[in-house]
Design goal:
7-stranded mixed β-sheet, 9 helices, alpha+beta
C-alpha cells in the first residue's frame, strides 16, 4: 500500500462506493431532525453531583471529569478547567482501492448548534473510557487498545485551548484497520467528503478537525529553529492555578463570570437528556463564550512559495506558556479590528484577498453554542516581508512538524485542516 497515494486520492474523491455525498448529506439532515435530544439551562446550584468544594473549586462528587479552578499570573485573574486526564480523539481508517477512508461518527453533544456533527470514531475522556459515568464503554474503544506500530498512522498529544484548559492534552490518533461493516451513526468517508461538509455551518466538530490536521502526505520533518527552541526553554512568565473561584460566582445569574484584560467567558449549568449515548441523562457545567467572533489566517505567496502567517499566543493554560495560533482572532468585546491589525503589517496598497469564509463551532461537550467564523485570506507579493517578533511565516511542512511537536493551538489546527483543502 502506498499511503501517500491513498491520502491524495482520498482528498480528491467526493463520491465513493460506500456512500454518495447525497447519501451522507441525507443522513446528516436526518440525524439533526430527530427529536431525541434536550438541553436545559438550570444554573450551577441546580446541577446534580456538582458543587463548590471546601477549597472553593467547582467539582464533581467523584473527583473525576474536570473541575473549575482559578488561574492567575501578572495579567490574568480568571477561571480555567482543570482536567488532568488525557482523553482520546481517535479516527479509524482503512484503505480500499488505493483510497484512504475514515470512519466518521455523526455525534450529538449538548453544546452543539446542530445536534449531530461529524466527529472522530472515538471521542472520549479517560473517565468515560473507564465508565465513571456509570454507563457503557464508548463504541470502538477496543480498536484503540493494544495497537502495534504498523497500525498507527498518525499520533500526537495535542494541546487544548490555553485560555480554557490548564495544560490539557488529548491523544490525537489515526489508526489503520481492515475494512469492516460500519455501525449505526458511523460512516466510512473520504477526506474529500469531509471537506465537502464545510458548505454546512457548524457541521464538522473541532475534535475531528484537530485529528485530521495531522494527516499529511510527502512528510518532510523540519527542525524547530534555534531561536524558537531557546524561547520555549527560557519562557518564565507562566501562570499558576489557585483555589477558589467563588469570587466569580454570580448568585443572580447562577453562573461563574470571568473577565480579565484580554478574555471573557462564563460557566453555566445545563441538564441533558439524550438517546443513543453511553448515558441517557446527566448534568454538567459548560463554557459559554459568545465573544469570540472570528479566526483569521493569512497565506502569503512570495517568490512562488506559499507560507502561512502565524502569531504567538500567550495564554495561561499552555504548558510552555504560549502556542502558535491564527494570524488574528477577533472578539466582540475588544476595540481592535483584527483585519485592520493585519493590514497594518503591510504596505497600505497590499491586496489582501478573502479566499473563503466558513462558520464552525467549538467542541459541544464543553462549549455551549460557540460558533466562530473561519476566514482565509491570501496575499501574492514579490516584496520583501518583515514582521514583528511575535509573527512567523511557515510553510506547510514546517507547520506539520510544529503540530506534531505540540506547538499549534486548537484554533490554528482548525484553520490548518481547512487550509490544506482551501488553498489547494
Amino acid at each position: 500500500m502506498d499511503l501517500n497515494t491513498a491520502i491524495k486520492n482520498s482528498r480528491e474523491i467526493i463520491e465513493s462506493p460506500f456512500h454518495s455525498f447525497l447519501d451522507l448529506e441525507n443522513n446528516f439532515n436526518q440525524k439533526n431532525a430527530e427529536n431525541n435530544f434536550k438541553v436545559d439551562e438550570v444554573g450551577l446550584s441546580k446541577l446534580k453531583d456538582w458543587y463548590f468544594d471546601e477549597s472553593g473549586n467547582f467539582v464533581h462528587k467523584t473527583g473525576r471529569f474536570f473541575k473549575v479552578v482559578k488561574v492567575k499570573n501578572k495579567l490574568v485573574n480568571s477561571g480555567i478547567l482543570l482536567q488532568k486526564e488525557i482523553g482520546t480523539l481517535g479516527v479509524v481508517s482503512c484503505v480500499y482501492d488505493d483510497v484512504l477512508y475514515i470512519l466518521v461518527q455523526f455525534k450529538k453533544e449538548p453544546g452543539n448548534i446542530v445536534s449531530a456533527q461529524l466527529s472522530p470514531t472515538l471521542q472520549a475522556t479517560l473517565s468515560n473510557q473507564n465508565k465513571v459515568h456509570g454507563g457503557s464503554a464508548p463504541k470502538y474503544l477496543e480498536l484503540f487498545q493494544n495497537l502495534n506500530k504498523e497500525e498507527i498512522l498518525f499520533n500526537a498529544q495535542l494541546p487544548e485551548q490555553g485560555n480554557r484548559y490548564w495544560r490539557k492534552f488529548n491523544n490525537n490518533i489515526v489508526i489503520l484497520k481492515d475494512y469492516f461493516e460500519e455501525d449505526e451513526n458511523y460512516f466510512w468517508m473520504t477526506l474529500g467528503q469531509v471537506y465537502e461538509f464545510k458548505k454546512f455551518d457548524n457541521s464538522i466538530n473541532s475534535c475531528l478537525r484537530s485529528v485530521l490536521s495531522l494527516i499529511t502526505e510527502d512528510v518532510k520533518d523540519r527542525q524547530i529553529n534555534t531561536k524558537l527552541s531557546s524561547k520555549i526553554r527560557n519562557f518564565k512568565d507562566k501562570a499558576e492555578i489557585d483555589n477558589s473561584v467563588i469570587e466569580f460566582y454570580s448568585k443572580k445569574d447562577d453562573e461563574l463570570i470571568f473577565k480579565s484584560n484580554n478574555d471573557r467567558f462564563h460557566i453555566k449549568g445545563i441538564s441533558i437528556s439524550i438517546q443513543d449515548r453511553e448515558v441517557n441523562s446527566w448534568d454538567q457545567p459548560i463554557i459559554y463564550d459568545p465573544y469570540i467572533k472570528e479566526y483569521i489566517i493569512l497565506s502569503i505567496v512570495n517568490e512562488k512559495e506559499r507560507k502561512y502567517l502565524l502569531k504567538e499566543y500567550y495564554e495561561p493554560g499552555y504548558e510552555i506558556g504560549f502556542n502558535f495560533g491564527p494570524t488574528a482572532i477577533s472578539k466582540s468585546d475588544t476595540s481592535d479590528n483584527s483585519l485592520k491589525e493585519i493590514k497594518r503589517l503591510f504596505d497600505k496598497n497590499a491586496n489582501l484577498k478573502l479566499i473563503h469564509s466558513i462558520e464552525m463551532s467549538e467542541e459541544g461537550g464543553r462549549f455551549l453554542h460557540c460558533k466562530v467564523k473561519h476566514s482565509f485570506y491570501e496575499l501574492i507579493t514579490d516584496a520583501s516581508l518583515k514582521f514583528p517578533d511575535n509573527y512567523h511565516l511557515y510553510n506547510m511542512d514546517e507547520i506539520n512538524s510544529m503540530n506534531k511537536n505540540k506547538l499549534l493551538s486548537m484554533e490554528a489546527r482548525s484553520l490548518i485542516f481547512f487550509a490544506k483543502n482551501i488553498y489547494n
